[in-house]
Write a sequence for this structure.
């Protein structure tokens, strides 16, 4: 791929505008690189592990726990996607 121009909202790299497959003047001096930021900077999982834990949000310079009497799998899916995962396996 050459001359890639993404808007930032694409789901896949191949959805971005580009010169066309196989149409390029690429050399390793033009290789693209990226440093990715993991997940959301104001959301984290605490008291568990890499994949699970208590949901906390950063607000007004402090971390606080998210509480909900009706927390369900749809809520968990949103949190997991914001943290860079594809979905939630289950909520608890």
């Amino acid at each position: 791929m050459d001359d890639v121009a993404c808007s930032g909202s694409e789901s896949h790299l191949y959805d971005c505008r580009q010169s066309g497959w196989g149409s390029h003047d690429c050399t390793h001096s033009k290789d693209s690189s990226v440093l990715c930021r993991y997940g959301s900077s104001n959301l984290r999982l605490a008291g568990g592990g890499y994949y699970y834990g208590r949901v906390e949000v950063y607000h007004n310079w402090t971390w606080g726990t998210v509480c909900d009497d009706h927390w369900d799998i749809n809520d968990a899916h949103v949190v997991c996607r914001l943290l860079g995962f594809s979905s939630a396996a289950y909520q608890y």
